[in-house]
Structure formats: structure tokens, C-alpha cells
Amino acid sequence: NFPFTLEDVPISILAKGAELPQWQLDRFKLVSVLQPSPTKTTRPIKAIELVPMGAARIRITAFPWISKDAKRWQAPPTVLPFHPSASHVYEDDDLNAVCDQILPRSSGDHGIPRFTWWPNKGTEEWIEYRFDSPRLVSSVRVYWFDDTGRGECRVPKSWLLHGFINGKPVDLSLLSSPTCERNKYNILKFLPTRVDRLRISAKLQDEFSAGILEWQVR
């Protein structure tokens, strides 16, 4: 009659598995994207009872598989790897929102942390990532914040991407053009280039501010 308790589950599956001690919550108390399989563990194989998700305290929708000849699972970093900074950050926003791996449902998603240049309007602004060491990158994905119908943030009028290494600009040979579309990742591709900093320079629309929900680097 009530299948969402362990005592009353209508079905269960007995499987074999092992613990991955490094599979942990990150600094935002979230679980990031599943790492590639196979992975390695030294914990013993044992029987694991799986029940429907609604009846479980730990809810898992995808399991990695293990192998003796594989890489060890990587624990999440305790600090952000990108060290973001910006020309301006609204006091009620979170600069770290751009790399917190919380994926937006839309450009107007007010249910997750966000970064904006509010209340600056029509200005030229920037946000950048600084890496701990030079890394090879070939694309960025930007999800713009735009609360049309609710507030005064819009996608920017235009934006550019700049790369640096040791404080000197490096040429990013673009394979696509920067776009300012709502409700999707705006992907900018370029030839693989080694940098230690990446900067987005944005020209805001007249009479509007702008912001970013998520900025990914690959």
C-alpha cells in the first residue's frame, strides 16, 4: 500500500559491488558528473541490495564499474580549480556560481546561485579564470543569465574570449563565433591552446545588466 519504505518495497535486486571511498560530496554538498569507467578500488566485493529510488536514503541513478587494472576514482577538489575574478560582482550574488557545476534549467533560473555585473548597465565588463598551472584548452561553454519579464539582466550585446600565459596574451585561433543565446550553452571552439588564464570580455546591452549561470572550460 505504501511502497516508499524499506519494509514495503515491492521489489529488490541483489547485486555485487565495492565501496569507492573517494566518491564523495564536493564542497557544495553535491555529487559531480560520473567519472569514466572502469575505476579501481581496494575494498572487497560484497553483496549490495538495491531498492527503488523512492525508498532509498542514498539515491544513485548511475553506477561506475570496477576493474583491477584501472585508474583510481578521484576525490572532488576541496577548493575551486579556476580561481574566478571579475570586474564587478553584485553583493547578493556568488562569483563561484559560474563554476559550481550546478546546471541551470533556463537562463532565468532563480533557483540556483548566479553571478551578475548588476547594477552596471551598458558597460564593458569582464570575468576570468586563473589556473594553478598552464593547461591545454580548446573550448568554453557559457550559460548566460537573462531574467526577461522579471528583472533587468539580459544576455550581453557581444563578448570576446582572451587567453594569457605568464601575463602575456596568446592567440586563440577560433573555430566558431561567440554567441549570446538564451536557455542554452553558448559554445566557443578554438584550436587547442595552452593558457594559465582565460578572460571573457562582455559588452552589456544598453540599459541592461548581464550575468552568467555556468562557465565551463574544456
Give the arrangement of secondary structure elements.
Blueprint (H helix, E strand, L loop, with lengths): L12 E5 L21 E2 L5 E5 L20 E2 L12 E2 L28 E2 L7 E22 L12 E8 L2 E3 L15 E18 L7 E7 L1
Parallel strand pairs: 2-4
Antiparallel strand pairs: 1-3, 5-7, 6-11, 7-10, 7-11, 8-9, 8-10
Question: How does this structure look, described?
Answer:
It is a single chain. The mean pLDDT is 93. The protein has strands at residues 13-17, 39-40, 46-50, 71-72, 85-86, 115-116, 124-145, 158-165, 168-170, 186-203, 211-217. Strands 5, 6, 7, 8, 9, 10 and 11 form a 7-stranded antiparallel beta sheet that branches. With 218 residues, the chain is mainly beta.
Can you give me a brief rundown of this structure?
The chain is mainly beta.
Give the integer mean of the pLDDT values: 93
Sheet/helix structural class: mainly beta
**What would you report as the Rg, rounded to the nearest angstrom?**
21 Å
* N-to-C CA distance: 48 Å
Helicity, as a percent range: under 10%
How would you describe the oligomerization state of the chains in this entry? Answer: single chain
- Large-scale geometry: globular
Parts with pLDDT < 50 across at least 5 consecutive residues: none
Order of helices and strands: EEEEEEEEEEE
For the secondary structure, the number of strands is: 11
The amount of beta strand, in percent, is: 25-35%
Largest pleated sheet: 7 strands, antiparallel
Please report the number of helical segments. 0
